[in-house]
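Batch manifest, entry 17 of 40.
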Amino acid sequence: MIEDFLESAIVIDDKPAEIAELVDLLNSKEIFARVFLPQELRARQTPLKNTKIIFLDLRLEEDKDTVTNVGIIRSLFSQVIGQSFGSYGIVLWSKHAEDIGALRSRMAGDSGRYELPLFLVGLDKTKYLRDGFNDLLTDINAALTNDIAASFFVNWSNLIESGKNETLRSIYSLIPQYDNLQQDLQFILYKLALNHTGIPIHQLPNYPLEQDAIKAITNILAYDVTHQPANHFNLFTDPAAISFSGTPAQQSKVFSQLNSKLLLDKQHIDQGVVMPGNVYKIVKDPSFFAMEGVPEGAVKIIVEMTPPCDFSQSKNEKRSRVLGGFYIKELSNTAKKKYAGPVFYSELDALFIDNSTDTYDLRFDFRYFGSVDEAELKDAGQYEILLRLKDKLYADVLQKLAAHTARLGIPFLKEGR
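Output type: structure tokens
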């Protein structure tokens, strides 16, 4: 497991002679190892480049106690790891669980200073100095197996790498002649990108189509990753014992953050590009969307709901179909009932909508369904773009809107009516 995962490693140690055999072992496995003395890192002016694992001696200064050495490590990481290092794990040379716990506990408060490790496992350095490093990778695998975060991260990373290779292999194999690689690959990516959102040709000059090419390839990657043969690891050995360590409020915040990531896109939006799923704040309240009875303090919004087939076939500027709604910091229990019935889309509570730390409840009202000129949606003075509904949420809103607008009913005689 670990050999497939590692391409390079960083070794931080104050005694290079002790870890020379470790470096030789890593190099023999074609794992490039960089060795740094603590003083070399202190003098370093630029951050380290990412590597997936760092071998770290807890006793960087032998004459100092554990608390002091933990402080030294944290100071070094602030200087050379920083906040853009990327994901990594730590193998800590220590046979004492309390030392590992001390470092993990102190690092927990450093999230604003440097990138925190995804896992931290401890091994007894004296064993390898006595018996040699031949069993090291086997021992690391055993340690990772008993660490949920490490097991998931390593296995997931290996699957991503295998899936990436399979995706690239499948795309490049479509090209008939390697001599025409550049031309044909550009053509394939162009068609995949156009197909991803179905953007009309006339919008391309103002639209970053490269993003859709990446999204289309990533969709293929997702399938290839999930269908790679994976090493079995016990992530959920006892489902009944799985729990959250924080308070109910902290758990709710985690759910809010996850739901926001799953459902909302606040990054890839552009005021000048009108797309299905775009959500706009109503700046100038038009009469049609002057929704009545919204809660005090609510912000009125509209969401672009043009069906994808109509959107992709549009040749010129058009009128967009839009659905009205609002968001508010928190609906009372009474208001939740009021804005829950068949005319509302009421699935969305406690989402992060803007860049603040506040969460909002969001509602769409199926009674306020109309159309707006594209030119008006591009005018931030009338409609300010906030975010975009991701595909699954957009599809669910569209389906429920269609179900609402298609309610026909029948004339049926009943007694007592």
